[in-house]
Specification:
alpha/beta, Ubiquitin-like (UB roll), ATP hydrolysis activity, Rossmann fold, 7-stranded mixed sheet, 3-stranded mixed sheet, flat, 16 helices, disordered N terminus
């Protein structure tokens, strides 16, 4: 039996300032430093409204899990207008004990949590990169999201037909990864042609001229990226210098996106925390550049969700699951059976290098989404563009300090008395969970 808690890749928590639109750090960044989560995110867009997308073969559970992501978290803020943006795009509430604590403390009429946008992308099939099925449309949908939940099926069921007539997660991983890499290989052909044409124009050469060199940085970036996709390995897992990343960022390659591997197990295997495929999947992921693996069970999550309005029955269901786990030989925390929905949402946010800061008052408690490495003026601009333009300072309290010192009061009075209420300037880099008031010297006009 393979316990799935042992197969998740180690992930560093140190996230570096964004590569673009950020002030330079006092100490020059080394080219070969460990970028942690930023290793993939550095290729992406610098935005606060990034999204994840479910990718996989047909009938692996993408739509079910997408619906569970948006539905299961309604309790986080009952008055938040949850929505399906269109038939395959949803916004799911980001679970946060800190945000919930603030909301319960201030008890405002308006509570607005952070959300993560998730797209349910229709199933790919073999040959999609060459237009098989609706492959080109599906691949364009993948290109439109900023990160990927790669969902793979590892459960048997006579009721759910597999597109290839048998369950083999490794084959499925090869199929999807192969299609994504094949699409990027095709993209790289166009990248090379465009770069060659650009250099010809710069040097005044004819279209027939071929005996000229491209820049060393472009060439090294291109060769590394091509070698990776030819080995069926995502580009984002490779080692690149910052100067090479600057080139790759503009190429539009799908496999530069952060990717989380999600394994859909049967309820039985999820409860017992074991499956014959898990170790094989872990080995495959390691061989293809590594990545985070999250086991889930759509069957279990759906059964749990269906009892949301019957708390006693839901509690009994979880107790029964725990009893099954104990009989399977699990002990202590290993025998506890919990939903993976909150963890999945948080993992998506972390993969995109997103975090939250809070504004809190008697009228509203709100979580605002920013990228890790965002400065105080840029964070103010998320609330309103005028706040960034006329930024004076930020009055900041760390959530941990608020919780320790507020003494039950829904105000910052006790935090100020404790000396934990700070004033920060333009170079302050926002921390996850900061509670902030921005001071600015502009009148509020229509947001740009």
């Amino acid at each position: 039996m393979v316990y799935y808690s042992t197969i998740e890749s180690n992930r560093t928590t140190a996230i570096k300032n964004q590569a673009r639109n950020m002030p330079p750090k006092a100490k020059k960044k080394e080219e070969n430093e460990d970028l942690g989560l930023m290793k993939a995110a550095r290729f992406g867009r610098v935005k606060n409204t990034l999204s994840m997308g479910f990718v996989g073969l047909p009938n692996v559970g993408k739509s079910t899990l997408t619906n569970l992501l948006v539905g299961a978290m309604h309790a986080e803020a009952a008055n938040y207008p949850f929505c399906t943006i269109d038939p395959n795009v949803v916004q799911c509430v980001v679970p946060s004990k800190d945000f919930k604590y603030l909301a319960e403390c201030y008890k405002p009429p308006s509570v607005v949590p952070a959300v993560l946008k998730v797209t349910d992308i229709a199933g790919l099939i073999k040959g999609a990169s060459e237009g098989a099925g609706l492959g080109n449309a599906f691949l364009s949908h993948i290109a439109a999201v900023d990160g990927i939940f790669h969902l793979v099926r590892a459960f048997d069921s006579d009721e759910v037909i597999h597109v290839d007539d048998s369950v083999d997660p490794i084959r499925d991983l090869e199929t999807i990864q192969g299609e994504l890499c094949a699409k990027d290989k095709s993209t790289l052909v166009g990248v090379l042609e465009r770069e060659q044409e650009k250099v010809r124009k710069e040097k005044g050469l004819s279209k027939q001229t071929t005996n000229f060199k491209l820049s060393e940085t472009f060439t090294s970036a291109y060769e590394k990226a091509l070698a990776l996709v030819e080995a069926n390995t995502p580009i984002q897992t490779g080692e690149f210098k910052d100067s090479e990343v600057e080139h790759i960022r503009d190429w539009g390659c799908i496999t530069t996106k952060p990717q989380i591997y999600v394994v859909n197990l049967s309820q039985k295997n999820y409860i017992r925390k074991g499956n014959k495929w898990l170790q094989k999947i872990a080995d495959w992921v390691k061989e293809h550049g590594g990545g985070q693996i999250l086991p889930v069970s759509c069957e279990f999550e759906q059964n749990l969700f269906d009892l949301k309005d019957y708390p006693d029955e839901q509690k009994a269901f979880l107790a029964e699951c725990k009893e099954t786990a104990l009989k399977a030989g699990l002990k202590g925390n290993q025998a506890e059976v919990r939903t993976m929905i909150p963890r999945l949402i948080r993992a998506g946010r972390q993969a995109l290098c997103l975090q939250s800061f809070f504004t809190a008052g008697p009228k509203e408690v709100r979580a605002w989404t920013i990228m890790k490495g965002t400065t105080a003026p840029q964070a103010a601009g998320v609330i309103h563009s005028d706040f960034e333009r006329g930024f004076i300072k930020a009055e900041v309290c760390a959530f941990a300090d608020f919780k320790t010192f507020h003494k039950g009061e829904s105000s910052m009075a006790k935090i100020k008395e404790a000396g934990k209420y700070r004033q920060e300037g333009k170079n302050y880099v926002m921390q996850d969970g900061d509670i902030v008031v921005f001071m600015h010297n502009t009148t509020t006009g229509k947001k740009k």
